[in-house]
Amino acid sequence: MTKVAKDVTGRDGYIQAQALLYGITQIQSLPRQRQEYSDMVDMCRILRALVPPETLPSYAYSVEMHTGKQIDLHFPEGEEATASDEIYMQDYLFAMADYRKRRAEAIRKAVEKIETKTQTPSEIASAAIARASGQ
Asked: DSSP readout, 30-93?
């Protein structure tokens, strides 16, 4: 077996997290009967062990924006969940809701800005004539 350096790229942890997130997203996008559920749940567990709680939402949100799909990280629930799992899950869900809220607000502002800048063809022509004549 070939020995591999501990950190090949200088950002191996990030790349591994992204690969897991994209893999989880792809599995979840399949029809239920084709999803490799136990593999996906294990991938979620590995991801949560690999990525600090304060970092995971930004990684997940980035993948969500690129794929257009929300990711379910299958946090442990019920009897198998520890207090730490519950806190991690709540922090993650809160951060993701905050990212989505901020994006929705940015989109709303952009649409509002476009709507207020909408001009009639004659207004555009008048503005162009004014600029051309140096007014």
From this structure: S-GGG--HHHHHHHHHHHHHHS-TTTHHHHHHHHHHHHS---------GGG--HHHHHHHHHHH
Tell the residue number behind the tokens 């593999």, with chain if given: 39
Angle at 30 (CA atoms; ends 29, 35), nearest 5 degrees: 115
Segments of the chain with pLDDT less than 50: none
The answer to whether 53 and 61 have CB atoms below 8 angstroms apart is no
- Rounded to 10 deg, the angle between the 56-67 and 83-117 helix axes is 50
Residues 6+ positions from 69 with CB-CB distance below 8 Å = 25, 28, 29
pTM recorded for the entire structure: 0.74
The per-residue pLDDT for 5 is 62
Give the C-alpha separation, 135 to 130, whole Å: 5
Distance CA 24, CA 45 (A): 11
How do residues 27-51 score in pLDDT, each as one tens digit?
Answer: 999 999 999 999 999 999 999 999 9
